[in-house]
Amino acid sequence: MALGAARQLPAAELSRLPRLRVSRERVIRTIAGLRPYRPEGFVLRAESLGDQLLVHNYGHGGAGITLSWGCAQLAADLLQGRSGQPVAVLGGGVMGLTTARELQRRGHEVTIYAKALPPDTTSNVAGGYWLPVSVFDGKRIDAAFKLQFERACALAHRRFQEQVGADPAIRWLQAFELRTEQAQVRRRMPGGDELYPENRTMPNAERDFGFPFVRGFQTMMIEPHGFLSGLLRDFYGAGGTLHVREFHSVSEVAALPESVVVNCTGLGAGALFGDTVITPARGQLVVLLPQPEIDYCYTSPSGYMFPRQDGIVLGGTFEVGRWSTDEDPAQVAQILAGNAKVARGLR
User: Fold this and answer.
1) Residue 217 pairs with which residues in a beta bridge?
2) What is the distance between the alpha carbons of residues 294 and 297, in angstroms, rounded to a whole number?
3) 185-201 as b/e, with b when 16 or more CB fall inside 10 Å?
4) Farthest CA pair distance, the chain
5) Residue 142, burial from CB neighbour count under 10 angstroms (0-12, 13-18, 19+)
6) Rounded Cα–Cα distance for residues 329 and 326 (Å)
7) Whole-angstrom Cα distance, residue 66 to residue 88?
8) Which helix (H) or strand (E) covers residue 338, if one does?
9) Contact present, 296 and 345 (Cβ < 8 Å)
10) Disulfide engineering: 264 pairs with which of 96, 304, 330, 334, CB 3.0-4.6 Å?
11) What is the pTM of this model?
């Protein structure tokens, strides 16, 4: 059987799951983030900007951390023939930092220009669960983009695997998809089933999980704050230079001294480079006190739960076109109620 192929898990292998404690009294913070979403998928291509080479790497929707190392490698590949040339990277989120580090590994002198740095980036608001979802509208992509997406998934997955243990912000984690329809647990996993070890359907799903159909698998959790801080530290350690700066026009970008510019500005690419497709996809998060005994995560129709060192992250909203990062009390209440219901149904 191929790695990741669905199989039935014998009942003896399923141990009792620690119970998630959900209550308003356990909430330590709420926050909303704006994912840079493009229904047509992320932009990863090179073009000329006067005498400069301009490489775009932005618009990854709900999978910025997931795809980061893969898209960083694909972006760096577009610099063929410019070995050793100085590079400007625009953006200090996960795409900017991983791209900068990949370019440094390939021998480039890199300068980052960013208006915000960790812990104040959109990437710091991410859940950090390795699963490439909410990246595009399947009806609006072509075969070439699908191949690019799957290549980015495979490259990113391998790089994160290699960092488990070396980077304390990255670890393997048991995951469950709680679903109401059988087809949802039989579909091909995003990026390919081979990226999800121990992929199987769970027996006695209704009894053990409170849902009629459940898929279990192993994936990785990337703690955003630790991961991003480590990237920034490694960037400086490799001799990188950083300038806090916001760009308002393409002409300002063209005036940079570097011969290569990599655009990792996320939502900022809309105004800066005239992308009329990119739009925010707002996500409301609720963070509970940590529960060290919780060693699993789940996604469900009611939302998701990711256990991290900085707290139990609950979420699941995806509002396309909404720019506000203010707390939505109704959504907070809905997230808490939905996850409390899931917790009551777990064995």
Assistant:
1) 175
2) 8
3) beeebbbebebbeebbb
4) 64
5) exposed
6) 9
7) 23
8) helix 329-345
9) no
10) 96
11) 0.94
